[in-house]
Design goal:
The chain is mainly beta and about 170 residues long. About 15% of the residues lie in helices and about 60% in strands. It has a twelve-stranded antiparallel sheet with strand order 1-2-3-4-5-6-7-8-9-10-11-12, covered by helices on one side. β5 and β6 form a beta hairpin.
């Protein structure tokens, strides 16, 4: 591992702005550039050997909120929450060419799961939907009721506040 940047009051502890590059068997593996606190990433940009990119916030050294960009799919993105460093929680998923985009909703392991607003490209229509794969193992789309819509609107409000905070503080 190489590091260029600021250190805190403790020798060898990254603290402040810096860039860290990691290698496996002397071959580039991952690069991070951003802010460190007590030797942990708190915000920055990360690029992996396979072209995967992440920009956002970290909690306990793991991704917590931000955007993933995929190699060979520049228009496909995941922007939102992460649980234990995995893309899950409330997010926006853009999948151009697949027929839909998950405009805002619950996700699990980077896929729509639960309540969400979806845009159906072929019909050029927005929809509020429930993805439920717990019974069949396959996604099924159902309309949501008024109570579910109210819950989704509250989640949307919380997400938009977090998104605005993210954009104001980091972009």
């Amino acid at each position: 591992r190489t590091f260029k940047g600021e250190f805190g009051n403790t020798a060898g502890v990254r603290h402040g702005y810096g860039s860290s590059t990691m290698y496996k068997n002397n071959v580039f593996f991952r690069k991070f550039e951003g802010d460190f606190k007590n030797d942990r990433s708190i915000y920055g940009k990360e690029e992996w050997h396979n072209g995967l990119r992440f920009e956002g916030e970290y909690k306990d050294g793991r991704w917590s909120f931000g955007e993933i960009g995929y190699p060979n799919q520049p228009t496909n993105k995941y922007f939102g929450s992460f649980i234990n460093g995995r893309p899950s929680g409330v997010a926006r998923i853009t999948n151009h060419g697949t027929g839909f985009s998950w405009d805002l909703g619950e996700t699990k392991e980077q896929h729509p799961h639960g309540l969400g607003f979806m845009f159906l490209e072929k019909d050029n229509l927005p929809a509020a939907l429930l993805f439920d794969d717990s019974k069949t193992g396959k996604n099924s789309i159902k309309a949501i009721n008024q109570n579910q819509l109210t819950i989704l609107q509250e989640k949307e409000k919380t997400f938009l506040e977090k998104e605005l905070n993210f954009l104001v503080n980091y972009k």
